[in-house]
Amino acid sequence: MFNFKRKMNEKGKTFEELVQYVYQSLLFLEGQDIQVTRDKVIIGKSSTPHQIDAFYEFDLVGIRHRVAIECKNHTRAITKGHVQEFYGKLTDLDNCIGIMVSSSGFQQGAKTIADHYGIELISSGELPLLGKVVAAKIGVILPNEKVLGQPFWTLMEEREGQITGTYVVLPHEKDKGFYLFTSKKTAEILSNDAGGVVVRGVSQLHLKVLLSFAEFHKLKFMFFPYDEKLIFKLTNEEVKEHFLYKDILR
Predict the structure, then answer these.
(1) Could you tell me the pTM of the whole model?
(2) Which of 101, 116, 183, 245 has its CA 20 to 30 A from that of 150?
């Protein structure tokens, strides 16, 4: 005889174990001065409270970074609607990226939209990879090859096919600054000439991080509108005023 109550209890236990696994996998990061919290409620920019299954944050180069992990224990594969809902939660939080863990996998639409928004998806069969993924999220400030320029492209150092984690900073008229390009083609021309660098897109989140870096290190921005020979020097405030979406500033 089907025992609905027992099945629900088993389902609840499975979910708790899933969340606990996520939480325990995060604990190895504690030694890096990372605060890990389970079942945390965070007030968003809209003053709305958001429940996060597992959450950690850390300081890097004077900037506060946050990662939210959502666990889904559904009988069917997670849809794009679930990912969109999670993305809405992330955008209401300050400087926060997301990882979604599912016990039943993800529909193709969910994978597509998660890839677009930069949300990491992990199925239960891939849980042993979680520690590696979480450790990689320390590199939240590092855009990969899938990130589109919104509105810029920049240059990053590369060694043996991997970015080193360093944005290219070069001098211009007695100042040093990050390179910003509105044209990916122009950025690629300079990267080919320089060698040892790779072109990466700068999303609004990455731009906010770059602004924090520039302020912290007293750097400026070297702006190439469309031609590798045409360059303008911009201050932190000029980039923030003209190119950072107002909602990101909150």
Answers:
(1) 0.51
(2) 101
| Range with top average pLDDT, 37-41, 138-142, 208-212 | 37-41
CA 196 to chain centre: 24
pLDDT tens sequence across 189-225: 888 877 788 898 988 878 877 887 788 678 899 998 8
Q: Are 233 and 175 in contact (CB under 8 A)?
A: yes
> Is 119:83 a contact under the CB 8 Å cutoff?
yes
Is residue 27 scored above 60 in pLDDT? no
User: Nearest CA to 197 among 188, 205, 206?
Assistant: 188
Q: Which residues pair with 59 in a beta bridge?
A: 64
Interatomic CA distance for residues 192 and 206, integer angstroms: 23
Rounded Cα–Cα distance for residues 143 and 153 (Å): 10
Say if CB 206 and CB 141 are below 8 A apart.
yes
Give the list of residues 6+ apart from residue 240 with CB closer than 8 angstroms, or none.
211, 249
Residues with Cβ < 8 Å from 55, sequence gap 6 or more?
A: 36, 37, 38, 40, 42, 66, 67, 68, 69
Q: Say whether pLDDT at 167 is over 90.
A: no
d(CA 245, CA 36): 30
**Cβ–Cβ < 8 Å for 221, 180:** yes
Query: Which is more confident, 233 or 171?
Result: 233
At residue 32, the pLDDT reads 53
C-alpha of 147 from chain center: 10
How far is the C-alpha of 246 from the C-alpha of 236, rounded, in Å? 15
Q: Which helix (H) or strand (E) holds 210?
A: helix 204-217
